[in-house]
Design a protein that fits this description.
It contains nine helices and eight strands. The chain has about 240 residues and is α/β, with parallel strands linked by helices. The strands form two sheets. The protein has a six-stranded parallel beta sheet with strand order 4-3-2-5-6-7.
Amino acid sequence: MTSYPKHRAPSAVCLDMDGTLVDTERLWDVAVYELAEQMGRPLDDATRERTLGNSLQGFFDILGEYTGHTIRGEEYERLAHQLNSRVTELMREDLRWRPGARELLDDIAATGTPVALVTNTTTDVARVPLGFIDSSRFDAVVTGDMVDDPKPAPDPYLLACRLLGAEPGSAVAVEDSVTGATAAVAAGCRVLYVPSTEGQPDVVGAHTHDTLSGVDTAALSALTSGVPLPEPVRESGA
């Protein structure tokens, strides 16, 4: 078992979805690598890391730069539909929780803390993982097509805080990508950054931690008090 020091509770918690709550980045990998190969240049790992957590437009901007082929207009619409359809198909076949995510959601509910889902995934694709997670867990849901400027802009987190009636500075955001953590920091949130893939750099202003396992609202509360998240105290025999 693990335990964390108690601190003032956050006014709200904002949670990313892909790679944070559900293990979907491996599914996006399949669709993304397939699409890049179709466009004539197999994607390398460094470029894939750059696309993590991005909006659709951000992803296609990076892919266009990588393949040397600008993607706009009808082609963008066609390829975006293809990518989303493939990812949705994969999600219907194999969705899994990220370690500690379900337990954290249960603890947030037990404490009555307002909670929002904040994702760059579009509403149509988000329906499948939201069904798996259970959308009734959230007091607000913000998807990538609900704001003019998605992550890494702060807009999704600012909107989530408004919907929850919370000041960003007293809210905690939980993210797994540089893109998402950058957005949450820019919004003024306290940020717990749990990278879902190896090799991602730290994000200035975010507290990096290796897992959500054992993290509960008490641990998130440390962030709202301005205290760096400590390593968990492991009890003997656990």
